[in-house]
């Protein structure tokens, strides 16, 4: 084997090892990181790739099944799961909707991060690393879900990004920064009280 072939073989092996690590990192993240806090930016791209919408906020979670997405820009919106129900509060409309956790989530990206059953709900595979981010793919086993695929990106052991493609081909990319793993989370952080005067829609 000449040097070029040997070098190519070593690079291929290293790439394969890195790909395998992305799935292992995801499993390790779910097993060992019980709570977390991070800032995020979200870019939603239309199926044709022409329209993009950006938003930002903070994300908190506590296993099992509790999480809080707090959007600050461009519009205030709050999505909270207390493990029993998922609440969505639109500040501009002063409207709240709620659904049972099992109906709202199931095998969804939020459930995956906040405590979903990886092996039961998703088929996992490793993807090529890109720009220093190691990617794992999670395909939902359930056929009646609302999304096609999820990609989870890690920089080292730290959660870096989450990319979701829904059944209409719309892509949502969340990029996380300042992740504090196993941060202290007060229980009331995942409780939601309907604001006075807000319309409540229970589904």
How does the SSE layout of this entry go?
Blueprint: H1 3-32, E1 35-45, E2 52-62, E3 66-73, E4 77-82, E5 85-90, E6 95-100, H2 101-104, H3 109-114, H4 118-121, E7 122-130, E8 133-140, E9 147-155, E10 158-166, E11 171-181, E12 199-202
Parallel strand pairs: 6-12
Antiparallel strand pairs: 1-2, 1-11, 2-3, 3-4, 4-5, 5-6, 7-8, 8-9, 9-10, 10-11
List keywords for this structure.
single chain, 203 residues, alpha+beta, twelve-stranded mixed sheet, 4 helices, 12 strands
The number of E-state strands comes to 12
What is the count of helical runs?
A: 4
H-E order: HEEEEEEHHHEEEEEE
Report on the biggest sheet: 12 strands, mixed
Mean pLDDT: 81
Task: Describe the 3D structure.
The protein is an alpha+beta fold and 203 residues long. It contains four helices and twelve strands. Strands 7-8-9-10-11-1-2-3-4-5-6-12 form a twelve-stranded mixed β-sheet. Strand 8 and strand 9 form a beta hairpin. The longest helix has 30 residues, at 3-32. Mean pLDDT is 81; it is low at 2-19.
Short description:
The protein is an alpha+beta fold and 203 residues long. It has helices at residues 3-32, 101-104, 109-114, 118-121; strands at residues 35-45, 52-62, 66-73, 77-82, 85-90, 95-100, 122-130, 133-140, 147-155, 158-166, 171-181, 199-202. Helices cover 22% and strands 48% of the residues.
């Amino acid at each position: 084997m000449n040097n070029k072939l040997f070098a190519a073989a070593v690079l291929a092996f290293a790439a394969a090892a890195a790909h395998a690590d992305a799935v292992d990192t995801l499993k390790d993240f779910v097993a060992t990181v019980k709570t977390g806090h991070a800032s995020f930016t979200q870019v939603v791209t239309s199926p044709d790739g022409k329209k993009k919408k950006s938003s930002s906020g903070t994300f908190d979670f506590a296993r099992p099944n509790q999480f809080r997405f707090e959007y600050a820009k461009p519009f205030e919106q709050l999505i909270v799961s207390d493990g029993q129900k998922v609440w969505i509060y639109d500040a501009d409309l002063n409207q709240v909707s709620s659904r049972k956790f099992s109906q709202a989530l199931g095998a969804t990206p939020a459930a995956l991060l906040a405590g979903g059953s990886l092996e039961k709900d998703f088929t996992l595979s490793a993807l090529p690393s890109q720009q220093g981010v190691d990617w794992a793919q999670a395909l939902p086993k359930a056929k009646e879900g609302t999304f096609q695929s999820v990609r989870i990106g890690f920089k080292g052991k730290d959660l870096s990004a989450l990319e979701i493609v829904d059944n209409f081909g719309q892509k949502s990319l969340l990029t996380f920064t300042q992740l504090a793993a196993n941060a202290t989370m007060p229980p009331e952080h995942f409780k939601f009280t309907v604001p006075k005067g807000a319309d409540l829609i229970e589904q």
